[in-house]
Specification:
The chain has 81 residues and is an alpha/beta fold. It has two helices and three strands; from the N terminus they run H-E-H-E-E.
C-alpha cells in the first residue's frame, strides 16, 4: 500500500493500521521497518513493533523504535525471533 491510499499521513498511524487490516493481522503481530522519524512515530502509534534503519536519520533521532540498525544486513537477532 502507499500513502496515497490513506487520508492522514505519517506520523498518523493510518497507513500501518490499514496494512495490518488488509493482512488480517493485529498490529502487535507486525514489524514495521522505517528510516524516518515520522514513520517510527506512526508505527509506534499503530501499536506495531518497529525496526529503524539509520540510512536517513541518526540513531538518536530514531530512538522511539524498538530496534535500530544501520541497514538490513545488520538487523539485531532478536528482531527475527
Amino acid at each position: 500500500m502507499t500513502g496515497s491510499e490513506v487520508t492522514r499521513k505519517k506520523p498518523a498511524p493510518d497507513i500501518f493500521l490499514e496494512a495490518c487490516a488488509r493482512l488480517r493481522l493485529e498490529p502487535v503481530e507486525c514489524l514495521v521497518i522505517e528510516d524516518a522519524v515520522n514513520g517510527v512515530r506512526a508505527a509506534k502509534a499503530a501499536g506495531t513493533r518497529c525496526l529503524a534503519l539509520t540510512t536517513s536519520f541518526s540513531a538518536k533521532d530514531l530512538r522511539e523504535a524498538d530496534w535500530i540498525a544501520p541497514d538490513l544486513a545488520h538487523v539485531p537477532a532478536e528482531v527475527l525471533a
